Amino acid sequence: MSQRFLQISDVAEILNLSQRAVYALIKSGELPAIKPSKAWRIEASELEAFIQRQYADTRARIESDSLTDEP
């Protein structure tokens, strides 16, 4: 059985981002997370939903011809 919750370090590795960048995504509300104790946890399904939203956003930017390096 796969893990239900991931640590920030796991998510950072999966997304090839820094842990600070993952924390910023959590703080902005873009990546839902919980903090059941002293450490943040991200549900695997929430990470997958975040990834799918990013794909959808990219497709929309491509279709509107506004694909740049800036979000």
TrEMBL record:
Pfam families linked: HTH_17
InterPro entries named among the record's database cross-references: DNA-bd_dom_put_sf, HTH_17, SinI_DNA-bd
SUPFAM superfamilies listed in its UniProt record: Putative DNA-binding domain
Official protein name in the record: Helix-turn-helix domain-containing protein
Domain Helix-turn-helix, chain residue ranges per copy: 6-54
One MF annotation (Gene Ontology) recorded for this entry: DNA binding
UniProt superkingdom: Bacteria
